Amino acid sequence: MDRKIFGSDIWLQPVELRIFIYLIGQARFEDEPNRKYESRGVIIEKGQYLKSYRKLQKDLEYIENNSVKNYSLSRIKRALDNLKEQNRIKTEKTPLGTLFTVVNYCHYQGWYSKNDKHRTELEQQRNADGTELEQQRNNTNKGNKGNNVNKDNNNIVPKAEIEKIYNSLSDYWKPIFEDYIDIYRQKNKTKKITDNKHLRLLKELKTIFKRKSFKFDGQNYNLTDQVFEKGIDAIVEKQIDNLNYAKQVWISGMEKAKKREDQKRKKKEKVKSGNYQDRSGQNDDNNYKWKDFFIDFDKYKE
Questions:
Q1: Torsions phi, psi for 288 (to 5 deg)
Q2: How far apart are CA 191 and CA 193, in angstroms?
Q3: What are the extents of the domains in the chain?
Q4: Left if phi > 0, otherwise alpha if psi is -120 to 50, otherwise beta: which for 104?
């Protein structure tokens, strides 16, 4: 690791720093590319690492107050965007996940003998793609095999629908939706939810997002993208697995916005009528109206 990193801006960005060091440590060290997934259009070169955002989130877990915590997917995305802006990494979407490239990778690594057998074996083991291994672990059948086969067949439709919804979202909104779903996973002891529940939650949120409207206590409300995002951010931050809380945040945000608009409108009306009083000087003995400054103001006002 280059010692200059301790005096750079990234040293003051703990999340970006963790992710950057993680990518440096996990990136492929061998000069020869990993062509294991070449048939699927993915070749992992030196200084590159293949990982999904979800698995990256899992690997970045940390302990705080004796409990395991993790960064939201939107926070991880922002950190990665910052690293890209700083020209420290590059990213490329692939069918198997995101391919991360550490810019000037060799600059951060010491040079070792190419024939170092022990290092080579360790590197080959480390660079084995984790995604496939983790998928195998997650798909390990427990109990009766036949029952699980039936369950998998029943889940084909929900899984396809879930993937379809995520694919319809932009790169900006997808992590926000994933963060919302992840609340329900974290609240479950198994850290998982069924595909049917996943699909139901996703459809409900996508419908509100698409229509830019929702219903609460029998009343219909319209909302903007900005208000929508603030509501989701609020429940993600507080880890509240209840969309009604987000709706209350949306309503509160819209009421505040309406109040500001009403204040602006009333101010314009007062200025127009000549009755506007600048409250910044309300403690002065000399408070004037607009018409005090003009001769025959009433004659010329609209």
A1: -120, 155
A2: 7
A3: 3-137
A4: left
Tell me which residue of 153, 177, 152 sits closest to 163, measured CA to CA.
177
pLDDT, the chain, mean: 77
Total-model pTM: 0.43
pLDDT in tens, 52-91: 888 888 889 888 888 888 888 888 999 999 999 999 999 9
The Cβ-side half-sphere exposure at 57, using a 13 Å CA radius, reads: 18
The partner residues of 44 in beta bridges, in order of sequence, read 34
The 3-state DSSP class for residue 81 equals helix
In tens, the pLDDT along 246-271 reads 888 888 878 887 788 888 888 877 77
Structure-token match 């070449």, residue found: 38
Contact 87, 74 (CB under 8 A): no
The β-bridge relationship of strands 213-216 and 97-102 is unpaired
Q: Is the CB of residue 74 less than 8 Å from the CB of residue 28?
A: no
- Which segments within 103-218 are labelled E, that is strand? 213-216
Closest CA to 199 of 232, 160, 231: 160
Rounded CA Rg of the chain: 28
Contacts of 128 (CB under 8 A, 6+ apart): none
Tell me which residue of 86, 109, 64 sits closest to 16, measured CA to CA.
86
Winning range, highest mean pLDDT, from 67-76, 82-91, 111-120, 150-159: 82-91
